[in-house]
Amino acid sequence: MFLKSCRLKREEVQDFSVYPFSIPTIHHLDTLSLNQTVTFFVGENGSGKSTLLEAIADQIGFHTAGGSRQNVRAYNVHASESHLGDYLRLSWMPKVTDGFFLRAETFYQFASHIDEVDEDGFKSYGGKSLHHQSHGESFLSLFQHRFREKAIYLLDEPEAALSPAKQLTLLRILHDLEKEQNVQFIIATHSPILLGYPNAKIYEFDETIHEVAYEETSHVQISTYFLRNREKMLEELFKEQ
Ligand SMILES: Nc1ncnc2c1ncn2[C@@H]1O[C@H](COP(=O)(O)OP(=O)(O)OP(=O)(O)O)[C@@H](O)[C@H]1O
Question: Best of 27, 49, 53, 84 to mutate for ligand 1, by most ligand atoms within 8 A of CB?
Answer without folding.
Answer: 49
